[in-house]
Amino acid sequence: MAVPEPLKLLVVASLKRGVEPFVHQELREMERSRADITLLPTKTGPGLYPALDSWRLLRTPGFRLLGGFIRTLATRPKASMALLLKALHTGTLAELVLAAGNLREAAGSDVLYATFGDRKLFIAYYLKLLTGLPLVVKIHAYELYANPNPGLFQEALAAAQRILTVTEHNRKLLVERFKAPGDRVDVVRIAVDTDGLRPRKRFALLTVAFFAERKGHETLLRALRHAGPGVEAWIVGGPGPELPVDVPELAREFGVADQVAFFGALKGAALSALYDRCDAFCLPCRTDSSGIQEGFPTAIAEAMAAGKPVITTRHAGIPEVLSEVLVPENDEFALAAAINYLQEAPSKRRQLGLRNRGIAEREFSLRNAAATLAALEEAAAGQAAVPAGNAVGDRTPVAVTTGTGAAVISRPRGGE
């Protein structure tokens, strides 16, 4: 049985902030089925969803657009002059130039597809008038209420072979308000990936840290390759003051990009929501190539305060506070084993979360700020400074009352 030729689509879309997410999803799925995609952008710019490499993207320089427009005027003077008068009358000269300037590229297409009923439709409509190709448009919402050119919109709708829209409400408006031919208007709802978005059991590991070598992102991403099904990393942060690690590129390099969600830098309610919703916190700290180590990561203390189990490493001062779950630095296999253990042990997660909450209340509360203030007040009052170099074991906790309440500072024995 012969394989059918792919349908050659010329898609008129805006790429001002990349491709619109729902348009990107739709085009990807159509390509996966049987479509060959050529994109004619009205605008271009960076965004979350860039055009795929497999899509042909028409990037016609201005001088070539103008040359194509002049060539169209010269080779089709009668039709072109009529369109030029229409464009001048409707204020759509830019749309006509963009259409005529890409006439050669459009000629090999099977169908013109305007992804919205605004400028995209007007460009596709001019291409239809110049080429005779069938035109299909999808109407979403704003075009029905704030169309940049209602008159040309209605004219283009009348010329379209098919008019697709996303709700029955829109269909009614198209027929009643804009006199669209009802037998050519169909409701085709937004396409979403219902397989990818199906309810599923997941085990979410939260990491909060700027992207630096000593934070251990690389170890975490390597460990994901050995983790159980449903494990994913929620990564909060971005480049920091140190030489940054390209964590998104590492995720792609290690083949785990589909297991990682990047949230950027967060604070306040947004960050608290992730602490609340994650199953465990993971920060596999390590000594970096310059010999720099962590003090005690604030994010670990925050996760403990949120009542979460913590997976981290036997690094610097971390074991002073946490006895589990600790693994060796740079050991992706031990880290994966710890992740898998907690994934399969919900009761242990609850136990660790309660324990960590108690430790956080004892060790990391805002009383510590009062202790810092107490030391500052002592210094300001001219009391003796604490000699440098005293070990923790040589210090005695001393209660100090300040304007902010009782605080505890550590003072060398014999210095009371």
Explain what the structure shows:
The chain has 416 residues and is of the alpha/beta class. The chain contains 15 helices and 15 strands. It has helices at residues 21-33, 62-75, 77-90, 93-101, 103-107, 119-131, 150-159, 168-176, 217-224, 247-253, 268-277, 298-305, 332-343, 346-363, 367-380, and strands spanning 7-15, 35-44, 56-57, 111-114, 135-139, 162-165, 185-187, 203-208, 231-236, 260-264, 280-283, 310-313, 326-327, 395-402, 405-412. The strands form three sheets. It has a seven-stranded parallel beta sheet with strand order 3-2-1-4-5-6-7, sandwiched between helices. Helix 10 links the parallel strand 9 (231-236) and strand 10. Helix 2 (62-75) crosses helix 4 (93-101). The longest helix is centred in the C-terminal third of the chain and has 18 residues, at 346-363.
Q: What's the short story on this structure?
A:
With 416 residues, this protein is of the alpha/beta class. It contains 15 helices and 15 strands.
